[in-house]
Specification:
single chain, Ubiquitin-like (UB roll), Threonyl-tRNA Synthetase, Chain A, domain 2, 8-stranded mixed sheet, 5-stranded antiparallel sheet, 36% helix
Amino acid sequence: MIDITLPDGSIKQLNDGATIADLAASIGAGLAKAAVAGKVDGELRDLKFPLSTGEKVEIITFKNPLGLEILRHSTSHIMAAAVKQLYPTAQVTIGPAIENGFYYDFAMERALTDEDLAAIEVRMHELIKAGDVFTRSEMSSNEAETLFKGMGENYKAEIIRDLAQARVSTYKVGDFLDLCRGPHLPSSDKIPAFKLLNVAGAYWRGDERNAMLTRVYGTAFPSQKELDEYLKQIEEAKKRDHRRLGKELDLFSFQEEGGAGLAYWHPKGAMARKLVEDFWREEHIKAGYDFVISPHIGKSDLWETSGHLGFYKESMYSPMDIDGQDYYIKPMNCPFHILIYKTQTRSYRDLPIRYSELGTVYRYERSGALHGLLRARGFTQDDSHIFIREDQLKGEIETVLKFVFYILGTFQFKEFEIFLSTRPKEHVGEVRVWDMATEALRFALDKVGFPYGIDEGGGAFYGPKIDIKVKDSIGRLWQCSTIQVDFNLPERFKMQYIAEDGTRKQPVMIHRAMLGSLERFFGVLVEHFAGAFPVWMAPVQARILTITNAVDDYAQTLAQELRSKGLRIETDLSPEKINAKVRDAQMAKIPYSLVIGAREAEAGKVAVRRYGSADSAVMTKDEFLAQILKEVSERK
Ligand SMILES: [Zn+2]
Ligand SMILES: [Zn+2]
């Protein structure tokens, strides 16, 4: 008999040679059916893996994110098997699970297109129905390399060489053999629901000097219902794509002529951004921050001291020569804020010092990684650096967290995914200070009361951090805020303050961005609101539509009156029919349409129609003014 420890600490006795599947069966029939793999002493294993006494085992089902990964990765094998059947000369490369799905890259004589996917799906359904078993084998690397070469799979042979392991494992499902570490589902018929999504080009090993491969994306879910929901979400996401809405609503553009990854803000986009900035600035003043403005370039000495030239150079652009000195465009604002701190002797009484800047930075991103406003080469961080004493850490982090949730909440984000990342193996600074800072972050998170996860060892080398993702209106998560404690830069720049006892001490530094960058956050907002911004941040808040040109004067006077109250008003005095004008205003996603005919003009009234509503309400102009001003002041 062997003894197996379960996650709850209890011991299960099994016969010699028992597998993970046997363990699941010994616990219950339901679990036996739901089990897809196991984690044995921390390593993922197939259900057929034979257990040994003393091992700690966790059964993995589709409820576990790891189970979903195994499902999706296994489906990528089935897809590769289908592609090989349909295109025997295709060579397989890699096929990992990714967030929400999987892909597989193929070297094809003719690149696949989206039109080819239906036939591949049909073949996959056949393979799934066949219920072929995933069979694992091990062999020496030499043996495997010869085997895959013989099959014409040159990429696999290259992978085996690069792995430089003595032995490798292969998996066979049906007649498709693949090099893989595993684990997989026990058999193909355990795939409940899948869908192939699209085809893209991808360079072998992500390097543009290599061959272009065909990447096929797909996804799989534990049920058809969950798959359908996901597909619906993708459809909805396409409609909300900020690049598409940015063009339709004339908010921003990217110009080939001006360079990739550099955003151009058009008048409406720039207005919306200004409104976000105004709100951000007002709230920072209330929260006790000071604004600073720093240069866009800095001498190499500065980046040497900060360490960026050591560990961040790949993201920095080539230097320019000014009077024989190298200057770099800034990828971050932090060193500049430190220099401002250092212009005076600081006392313990001066702290916290909170510097804030909407600081535009430039970072190199591969052209393939660029994605509209969400990933650009130039962007403006809402960057704050807070300098504090150690004893202020707890209180300050709590204040910062509350501030972050208040700001994000104003943009109608109500759900968050929060992670606290702790000390990694490689780190600077004393363990005592790390522990104290991590404790402060944990304390603040507990106090604020949102649930959070812990990423053990996932902190930056210079300090622990809190990362906050927002959940948008269709359930997608976006990384926005980050609060990072830093013991490194204060040390590198020899920052000091005079402590109460007269000694010189080093301040602790907090890097803090709430929105992340204005570009990225705006891209997220466009998708979150599907372009229909709330009244307070809509570039145009109301459009006045006339039914007849006889009321044009009244419309213009009204527009001027509303503008004088600080509102952003457009008029549509064109000879179009009123229905067409209403439709145009809806297409432009303007919060209010004010329809005016002879009756309204005579009575000093307006027919008010909300974006997305089919009804309108007739009210006096003062009633409308009071309503919209209230909404603006409440930021609704
Ligand atoms: Zn695999
Ligand atoms: Zn910073």
